[in-house]
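User: Here's a protein and a ligand (flavin-adenine dinucleotide). What would the complex look like?
Assistant: Let me lay out the input and then the predicted complex.
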Amino acid sequence: MATRFSEKIESLKEGIRGKVVLPGDGGYDEGRRIWNAMIDRRPAVIVQCAAAEDVPPAIAFARENGLEISVRGGGHNIAGYSVCDDGLMIDFSKMKTVRVEPKTRRAYVEPGARLADFDEAIQAHGLATPVGINSTTGIAGLTLGGGFGWLTRKHGLTVDNLISAEMVTADGETVRADANSNQDLFWAIRGGGGNFGVVTQFEFKLHPVGPQVLAGLIVFPFNQAKQVLRQYREFAKSAPRELTVWVVLRPAPPLPFLPASMHGKEVAVLAVFYSGEIAEGERLIAPLRRFGDPVGEHVGPQPYIQWQQDFDPLLTPGARNYWKSHNFTELADGALDTVIEYVGKLPSPQCEIFLGHIEGAANEVPAGATAYSARDAKFVVNVHTRWENAGEDEKCIAWSRAFFKAAAPYASSGAYVNFMTEEESERVSAAYGPNYARLVEIKKRYDPENIFHLNQNIKPVEVAGTQSRRSA
Ligand SMILES: Cc1cc2nc3c(=O)[nH]c(=O)nc-3n(C[C@H](O)[C@H](O)[C@H](O)COP(=O)(O)OP(=O)(O)OC[C@H]3O[C@@H](n4cnc5c(N)ncnc54)[C@H](O)[C@@H]3O)c2cc1C
């Protein structure tokens, strides 16, 4: 197909090992489709990278032709910045290799790997590191924004386990960022998102986990949510770090262990994960059942890798999604009551509110040690507003915003950039709090023209009230 780049595009094709996909080409629609069906954008060029060396020519092509650049890892981000209109999309969906060195407990991961690819490769050696709870999420975006999941209480955020990254910067240079080289860059990418360059390989440290863990769900009727949440709050205070319990409030899916009469009715679900000895886990979780009268339970030993996929059926791609989240250092009565009030008026049956407990190792890292600064956060409350029909957009978005506003008085500072929508760009500086000024300085150095701006953008401009601390 003829495009305005017809001549130049041929040299781009010749200059890379991967594929250039243009509008009208086979695979174009598949390539531009991302997890959130609310995002429908049409890049002028998709560069499907086959190797890290494909990235500099892609950046150079975009710069020469005045195209915006978007970067796609797993394509999961709710804001949809991984795909752009009329720009160039650097697509890593074909680069998913995960190489493991079991002796040194290290994994070397390409940026298109999904959590399922990552977990499968490292669990083959009985190893794991904290990542998210939905296996189709991309490791790249998750890591660059912070990353947390079932192992975070014990082993910290995903970024706390990042050892190094290979990157291509805005000027096309390939660099390594780690504790000894390009330290500022290494600091910035541990939470600063895709603002500083394109990562072509992540190196993680790994921990022995599983392969069997104790995990599953304990489900209570919604009219017991208040007593369940209050007891949960107390329980969480003394739970050992190997034990992570999150709460999900939503209409009950048709799970076989729930009575049919409960299907579609609101429930409070304790999602339980224990990575230590199974028998000890059984002992530790026993009190959870006494928070009320459970209507169903499915908890037992299972492979870690299976648990990492257990929520996938509720989080499939192709639905419309709008999320909002707050951090909490404590769950005040008012916060819990607000959660219950809003679950009582869900706008659509796939909507849910999630309380994620992340207290532990991540809180021991000083706020200034990585770009991710919300080191006091013990809980993350995320509203998964999810529906199928565009006709429901208005009421679903309104419900989500209303909950966010009502819960705000109880929330702590900072915000998780990975859960922020496109419209929340005003929240970016607050998300990074005391680290924002340093992030701006590093952005000025590595991307002064802001060519990587399709993200929760840190602009390379002076921050009011700060002086330039630019180092040589
Ligand atoms: C269903 C679902 C469940 C989730 N669960 C969790 C969870 O349990 N824990 C958690 O921490 N988060 C969770 N998240 C949030 C998730 O971490 C973010 O959506 C994350 O951005 C996804 O990464 P991705 O690579 O799939 O996304 P993409 O949309 O591909 O990328 C997101 C952004 O990251 C940047 N980026 C991606 N790849 C690169 C790269 N190689 N180099 C430079 N920049 C890059 C770009 O700016 C891009 O716009 C969840 C999201 C969803 C949709």
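Summary: The pocket of flavin-adenine dinucleotide is lined by residues 35, 71-78, 81-82, 92, 111, 132-134, 137-138, 140-142, 144-145, 147-149, 193-194, 198-199, 315, 418, 454-455 (CB under 6 Å).
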